């Protein structure tokens, strides 16, 4: 359902993100793709020092492995992501049922992944890449074509710009950052600006103040008031921006009274790391998505393309498997457009989400034919129908005081999660 366009004169600085038309699409989508891709990808997670020892990290490799800046610049000059294929990446997102994308435009290394005019530390001017290509423009075009919202990540923390770490010249850094953000908004019209690095604790190197955060939000809203902003924009995570950003965890909702989005990796790194084979299973990822949606959160699941821009097959396969589960028997109804049930507590055997007058009970531990699944009611409501998606079996729903006892007559339809759809009537 297309959200109403916010009208002119809307006070974006004070509207409530929980109800604003500006965030409507984001609240409905539930599932997005994060992309960590930068000059660090050229190293693919391994840096060989002068003494022959190898140091490992991904997007933090510059800092964690102490790569001197001149060497890092040389490495970046070899970066040639010739196989970056926006249509393929967007298709992978689509296959997963992801409805928006957030791509790193600039990570902590300070390297701009678009042809910025602000400096030459960017993919066009400091690489071996085709100067005519602009991968952010390619992504924006492909995302638009697929009906996927496109957003950009921008790190406030900058390891490359010397003015970031110099209190006397910090305003010059800020001016350049503002200019880059204007380029991003003007050229790629992001629906999300996802900030990061406001938190770095290298004091006194981190000159980013709470006031800087407030100003930045006002600035972004002045560029385009419809942009959704995450909370890492300032120093007041609870009140800054529109969306909370728990990382690698699923919190109990609500998070400090904010909309929230859990960002997570598919293996143990954000950027490509050739040595990291610790991939999460499709079952685990799908259950995480269901759990997050059942608590009215969003899931921002990351891919890290390799140095040539290719997405690991392990990522592509898992994304598709998450989408396949959703496409089976309409099971995806438990996710997009759904949220916290309100009327029942989270059961021990799975999670429950709600969309309008339907509850979706995602059963992770199926009890077996004739065995009960119990839900604790938190509010009065009637169950007017119950069925197992993708199965002809009967399921009865009997109320016993504040408990709803569901008894399926057959076996689980799906080892990841079997969906029981309940039709409900609330007074
Ligand atoms: O330092 C970054 C990290 O590399 C990655 O980008 C994540 C994504 O949320 N954010 C930072 C750590 O909080």
UniProtKB/TrEMBL annotation:
Top EC group: hydrolase
Keywords annotated in UniProt: Glycosidase, Hydrolase, Signal
The enzyme's E.C. designation: 3.2.1.51
Family, similarity comment: Belongs to the glycosyl hydrolase 29 family.
Function description: Alpha-L-fucosidase is responsible for hydrolyzing the alpha-1,6-linked fucose joined to the reducing-end N-acetylglucosamine of the carbohydrate moieties of glycoproteins.
Protein name per Swiss-Prot or TrEMBL: alpha-L-fucosidase
Full protein stretch here: 35 to 461 of 610
